[in-house]
Amino acid sequence: MIFTVAIDGPAAAGKGTISKAVAAHFDFAHLDTGLLYRAVGAKVNDGMDAVHAAETLDPSDLNRDDLRTSDAAQAASKVAVNPDVRAALVDFQRNFATREGGAVLDGRDIGTVICPDADVKLFVTASAACRADRRYKELAGKGQDVTLEGVLVDVIARDKRDSERAEAPMIVANDATLIDTSDMSIEQAVAAAINAVDRIR
Ligand code: C5P
């Protein structure tokens, strides 16, 4: 059985949590595609050329433990504007999406570019203030040296770069179901996503 769930949306809207929960609920595989761009950004920070980093990316690169920082997020969104970087990562994502047993992919362009024929498309969003607050708590909780103001500035800068780029900008696919998690608990957001998948499955 091939069944693809595409989950797009801005940083810290709850995509990751929702994607993991949906994948676990339906026993589908999950790919956080942001990690691909973070891993390429990290290699560029190490001095590698961005396109070469994307072309030679190995799944083991996704396990680096420095990918969950604000620096890695900014580096990711900078390499993500490069069409050649994006092109080099397409096959890996499409192969994952069409694997046997079902797949959930989360990112910015899954429902629009990577998997335009996905069985279910969700766009998960929340207000910038709400997202910054969540990301701040997450990073501060891990002991990272961040401020709420700094995280808000980063979130807004990343939203702008992601939605205004020429190649595969972050936009809501016509046929996506919108889930605004600003006033939802994690449980409510997960239930809304599982319902949307259940309606099609
Ligand atoms: O989702 P995450 O915050 O880890 O993504 C990091 C960055 O990678 C995003 O800000 C975006 O620029 C880029 N990205 C992308 N397309 C995707 C996933 C992530 O451009 N499908």
Automatic annotation (TrEMBL):
Gene3D superfamilies the record matches: P-loop containing nucleotide triphosphate hydrolases
GO CC terms: cytoplasm
Its EC number(s): 2.7.4.25
Binding site for ATP: G9, P10, A11, A12, A13, G14, K15, G16, T17
Major localisation: cytoplasm
Entry's Gene Ontology molecular function annotations: ATP binding; dCMP kinase activity
Cytoplasm in keyword set: yes
The reaction(s) this protein catalyses: CMP + ATP = CDP + ADP; dCMP + ATP = dCDP + ADP
Gene Ontology terms: biological process: pyrimidine nucleotide metabolic process
Record keyword Nucleotide-binding present: yes
Localization in the cell: Cytoplasm
Cytidylate kinase domain segment(s): 5-43, 59-197
Superkingdom of this protein's organism: Bacteria
Entries under CDD domains matching the protein: CMPK
SUPFAM superfamilies: P-loop containing nucleoside triphosphate hydrolases
UniProt entry keywords in alphabetical sequence: ATP-binding, Cytoplasm, Kinase, Nucleotide-binding, Transferase
Similarity-based family: Belongs to the cytidylate kinase family. Type 1 subfamily.
Protein name, UniProt field: Cytidylate kinase
